[in-house]
Write the structure tokens for this entry.
Amino acid sequence: MGTVHTKNTPTYKAVPWESLYAITRHWQSDLQFYRDEIRFLRNLTDKRLVWVSDDQLIVKLRTVGNTLTELTLERQELEKKLTEHFKRVSAADAARLDQALSDFQIEHALLEEDFATFTRKFRNLKKSLFVLAEQSVEGSIRHEEFQG
């Protein structure tokens, strides 16, 4: 069997062809997790927006909501690409594998880049949302102290 060299590994380590099936399944599982996380974060922002009175915080929460929408679309597109990729990995046999290895290496490396980019965007959004949640809670506490 051939090997696939991935771009994102620091040593450009060769990945055995047999591992591609497992890697692709792992990515698909991660995307399902991200789908659930995005749904949770969407509910969190929608519910929190109702209680926020600070105009600047409302604008920031709406921006986060827009980014969640963009990430939802990116996740769906990445999931489609991974599904097609997985079908090709699953259907590959030794004869076709040798013929298509170069094309498949490129496809796999591009998917790896797309997945890494999506993951980075998601993590950054989550950090931003947590900062906004802290600011919102701090603002609520200050408001209560002022009222009390």
Q: What stands out?
A: The chain has a mean pLDDT of 78.
